Each structure stands twice: as C-alpha cells, then as structure tokens.
Predict the structure.
Amino acid sequence: MNTSTVSTAQLRRWPEQRDARIPAWIYSDPDLFKREMEVFYEGSTWNFVGLACEIAEPGAFKRSWIGTRPVLVVRDEDGTINVVENRCAHRGSMLCWKNNGVVKDFTCPYHHWSYDLKGNLLGLPFLRGAMGKGGMPRDFAKGEHGLRKLRVAERKGLVWATFDESAPDLEAYLGDEIAALIDRATGNGRLKLLGYNRQLLPCNWKLYVENSRDPYHATLLHSFFLTFGLLRADTAFKAVPTLGGRHAIMASTYSAATASEKNEVTQQLASLKSDFSLQDMDMVRPVDEFGDSSMINFSVLPSVFFQQHGNSLAIRHVIPKSESQTELSWTHYGFEDDDETMQNRRIKQANLMGPAGYVAVDDSEVLALMQPVAQSAPDSVQAVEMGGRDYAPQETMLTETLIRGFYHYYREKMGL
Ligand code: FES
Ligand SMILES: [Fe+2]
C-alpha cells in the first residue's frame, strides 16, 4: 500500500469530540476546497451578489462572485434583475472585466460574441464566414449558446442568486429568524450605497467564517472596542446558531452608561487602554436608530456577514479565491431617507471597519498569523470549547458555540 495514501486517509478523519475540534488540514487541502465550492457556493444555497441600488437604471451592471465563479448582476430593460455567469459561451473568456457600468449588451473581448442583458447570444462575427470560406455550420443554433442564467431573488433591496434550479426559495433557505433580521437591517428596502472596501486576506475562507462567528475574540483582541466600551464581555449578548448551524446571529446591547465602567471584566483585559480618548468621540457614540439599543451582526452561509457596528452598516461578502486566499468585499450602505448628519455618522463610523479599520485590522492581522501555521501543521487539531461542547444558543460573548454550529453543519454537508 502506498504510504502517502495511508497518511492522507488518517489525516482526514475528523477528531473525536466532533463539533468541539477542528482539524487543521481543512484549511490547506486544494481538493477539499474544490468540493467546498461545489457544495456551499455552487450547490443548493443562496448567495448575496449585490444591492439593487447599485444597478439602478436599465443596462446597469455589477460584477460579482459566487465562490470562485464570476457573475454579472444586470438591470434589464423592463426593470427586472438578471444574474448570468460572467463566462463567454464560446471558449470561456471572462466576458466583462469591469466592476460596474452601463451597457446595451455585452461583447466578449476574444472573438466578439455579443449577448443581450438576459444573457442570450445576439450575434457573432463571421457567422457565415468570409469570401465564401469559414463560418459556422448552417445548423448552428444561437439559442443554445447563451450565458448560463442563474435563479435570482430580490428582497428589501438585496439581490441573491443560486446556481441550483431546485434550491428551496430564498425565504426557506434563510429561515424566519434570519429573514426578520435582514428586514431589520434593510428597513424599507430603499438602500443607498455609501462605498466599498476590498481586501485580500491571506487565509482560507473558513478562518474568516470562524472569525465572524466568534464573539469571544472580540472581547480581547479588539482593543478599540474595549477601550471605548462598544463591545465588552459584560454586555448583554445572545449567540444563536440557526437551522442546525447554517447561519449565526450575534446580538449585543449597547449602553453608553456602562461603556467606561471598571469591573471584574475590565480587570482581565490586557489590551484595555482606559486613558485613551478620541478627538472626535462621535466615532464611538452610536445613535439608537432601530429603537432596540441593539447591535445585531449575523452570518448567512456561505457568503455574507451583515454588520451593524454603531451606525455603520455593511455587508461583508466572502469570496474564496483558493484554499489560502479569500477576498473580503465590504459594501457600506445607508438609507435614502437618511439626513446628512446620519449619513456622515455612518461614513465616519465605517472607519472602524475595512482593511485599515480601527477594529477590523486586528482580524486581518491575526488571520494572517493562522494560515501559515495551519498549512505547516495539517495534522494539528484546534479546540473550540469556550462555553461548552455543543452548539446551543447562549447568552454570553464568552462562547464558541457559533463556530461549533458552523462545523456541525459543514461536516453534515461535506460528509466528514
Ligand atoms: S471566448 Fe468569447 S468570443 Fe470567443
Ligand atoms: Fe474581529
């Protein structure tokens, strides 16, 4: 028997204490990565692809991704939204390499095949050849050579798509709890684009999923949060995995009254810098815009994290590039009804997030520390036991229950 085969099979056994352990080989295996893209991104899931307001007029398009597959989100002449694969039906060139714009049709750069806004093939040069030579066969059917069309759902100003014709409806995929939170985060659905951040994280996509389902680290790593009291371990908090660990909710309550209180929690914080202040304290003084004193952040598998930090609202789009690289694309938004003060507040507080954000930069740095170690020690095993070994909902930030929930769901879908 080939020894390398034995070794791989042994490494690929998920450790005992299943939801509470994570084997490091899952962060660096290219074959596993390929299967994850098929199961989670191209499979029976709904993926966020953009905001409807990004493509307001007929012919407006946005380039987006579902996992590693490029797609185009396009406003049709009749106002509907189409999502088509950004891959020419001829020989597979990326059809459009611009991030956004307004067009009448799409023409491939390679041999100039052109497609309408629905993805139907309009025409191609030299269909009948030239000088009596060349050209397509007489029975070439243009109707059979369009772009791949995806199923699309629009809800409250957000656009979702799936490659799977038989996927359940978007609402069933989200579940009631997540659908209600999306409604909260999108209000009347009249969203206004405020801007973008993009960054390339040098890590596997699941390390980012873990990070975004990990309130425990936020109480320690993010000294900006602690110093200005935006998020602390004594904050009233709920960590709720939904639909068997598929999605995850983190809901905290902010209180300006306790933001600078010293107690048992603050004594354990090496990164608390209580003598620091800001020239502009509006950065850390949110307005209670939803009327519930809550900051609710939640993840929708596989590709999106809804962020509410203060009044900074954003959708973080997780775009895996390879087993060791992940693009994170942030879409910051507000509402058409916002007054100027609120819009400026959102933009100012957005400085907490993004690649150089006062808070988010910590995550990028720590994830960059994790990936090379995971790659060099694939047979190592991580423990996720904070708050127990199951994935029940909990009312504390000091828990890894959402990570355990994610891996419970992940293993079920991957058959691991
Ligand atoms: S690859 Fe697009 S026209 Fe040939
Ligand atoms: Fe973080």
About this structure: The pocket of fe (ii) ion (ligand 2) is lined by residues 211, 217-218, 222, 363 (CB under 6 Å). Confidence is low (pLDDT under 50) at residues 1-7. The chain has eleven helices and 19 strands. The longest strand covers residues 191-201.
